[in-house]
Give the backbone structure.
Amino acid sequence: MISSVPGQAAPAKAAEFDDFAQNYKEALNQGLKFTGEPSDYFAIGRVSWLKKRLEKCRETVSNCLDFGCGTGGACTPLVSSLELASYLGYDPSPASILEARQLLGGQHTEFEFCETAVPSGKFDLAFTNGVFHHIPPAERASCVQTIWTALKPGGWFAFWENNRWNPIVHFLMSRVPFDKDAQMLFPHQARRLLSSAGFKIVLTDYLFVFPALLKNLRPMEEKLCKLPLGGQYMVLARKPLTSDGRIS
C-alpha cells in the first residue's frame, strides 16, 4: 500500500514514506493485525487473483512496472507467480527504493525513484496497490498518464485499491500511521479515472472478504467477487492496441 506522488507533489509525500522505509511492513501490520493475517498474505493473494484473471483472458505477461512499489512488497509475488522476465519498481521515496534495492535488487529486478527512469512503451503489465489513495485527486490523472505511457499497446493495468465501501477498511487504515489522511477512491471513481486516460475497463473484482477467523469460508470468495464486500478491489484495464481505441 505504499505510495507517493510523482511530479510537483512528490517531495512531501516521498519524505513521509522515507520515514517509514525501514519499518514499513511493521507499520502496515499495525492495522492488518486485526484481520489475523500479515501483509504477505494479501500481497500473494492479489497477484494470485490477477494471474487467474489473466489466464482466463488467455494472456501472459513478461515484464511489469510496479507503480508506487515502496520497499518492494509486491516484487517477489509478481516475479515468481507471473514468471516475469523483468520487473521495474518505481516510487519517488528514495529511502524506500534504497531499501528495496538492498533486499530485492538484481539483474532482472530494478528499482527507481526518478520518474524519468521509467521507459516508454516497454511494459506488458502495470501494477499498483494502495497507491492512489495517497495521491491528491487533482494529480491522479497525470500519474495514470505516466502508466499509460509506460505500457505497450495492448498492455494490462491491474489497479488495486482499498474498498471505500467497506467500513472495516476505514477502521484498519486509521490504525496505520501513513494511511490516516488517505483519500480512498470508490470503484466507480477508479474506473472513470482509468477510462478518462483511454484505458478499456475489462472487469472489477472484490477480494479479501473473510478474516483469518473465518478462513474456512474463503473458498466462497470467488463467487462473491462481484459484490462490493471485500477489503480491496481490482480494476483490470487494458491499453488499446490501436489508435482508434480498439483492442483488436
Summary: The domain at 10-238 is CATH 3.40.50.150 (Rossmann fold). Residues 39-56 form the longest helix (18 residues). The first strand starts at residue 63 and ends at 67.
